[in-house]
Amino acid sequence: MINKIVVFLLITVFLVSCNKFTEDSGVPSFIHIDKIKLNAGVGEGTDSAYIADAWIYIDDDFIGAYELPATFPILKTGARKLIVKPGIILNGISATRTINPFFEDISLNVNLVADSVLHFSTLTTSYIPEANFPWNAVGQEDFEQGGISIDTLTASSAWIEKSKLDVYEGDFSGYCHLNQTNDYLMVTCISDFSLPSSSNVVILELNCRNTASILEVGLYLNLSGGTVLQKQHLYINPGDSWKKLYVNFTDLISQYNSANSFKIYFSSSLSSDVSEADIFIDNIKLVTY
Questions:
Q1: Torsion of CA 247, 253, 259, 264, to 10 degrees
Q2: Would you identify the CATH topology of the domain 2-125?
Q3: How far is CA 86 from CA 83, 124, 169, in A?
Q4: Over the Cα atoms of the chain, what is R_g?
Q5: Domain 150-287 has CATH 3.40.50.410
């Protein structure tokens, strides 16, 4: 019996020593992640997402942030807790990459083997329970309902309407055509949104495609005494492809936390060097706490 115990202890010491040697010698294990997708719930709008990065934690230790798809080394082996925090690009600017606070962390129990790759083709996240989607009952303006929740203002010579001409998903998108006669667009959401608590994150999600002319996104802030303040915020450069954008209104709204409410607007003017331009918008979603 004593001999068996001695053998067991020797084996245990050997395994621990091997594991320590593997980690100390710098022989890594690897994790590969192809992509992270979003699974939105009822009242949370579309599953459309551009999850650009994976922020990686092993046993609560931060390992790094990696642009997807990615293969990255881990100088740990054995049974570990892997936490993946989905990352996005704010305002379409690659330098402003961050964890999306409205997405759930992905937690996995993994076994890491030195000089071996643990492969994940697709991971799935969802919105956190605290996320709030105030735009409308379906969580977004997807232009699939009977009417639309966006008004064209009187100063605008162009207008927005439902269209099947080009859609990101579903049957309709919001569409505006600019030409030399109707060369200015100014539209805003019908509803006023209450300001969240101070410093709470406010992100506008949308899919858009604007050809030839810049699309401006901003806020109308309703101040005390009936004063309305217009604040430009983001200019979306034209392109031929659909884009998924996360517009960060957090800092702007926190500067005017005494305002009563706000509205989101979209505006565009026909560029002087073109004769016409098209603007398509889909899946407008406001997310806050």
A1: -10
A2: Immunoglobulin-like (2.60.40)
A3: 10, 9, 23
A4: 25
A5: no
**Phi and psi for 56 in degrees, rounded to 5?**
-105, 135
Select from 17, 94, 111 the least CA-distant residue to 58. 111
Asked if pLDDT for residue 7 goes beyond 80, the answer is no
Domains in the chain: boundaries: 2-125, 150-287
CB half-sphere exposure, 94, CA atoms < 13 A: 2
* Residue 80, CB-side half-sphere exposure with 13 Å CA sphere: 23
In this predicted structure, the answer to whether residue 274 has a pLDDT above a threshold of 60 is: yes
What band does 2 get if pLDDT is binned at 50, 70 and 90? very low
Residue scoring higher pLDDT (220 or 15): 220
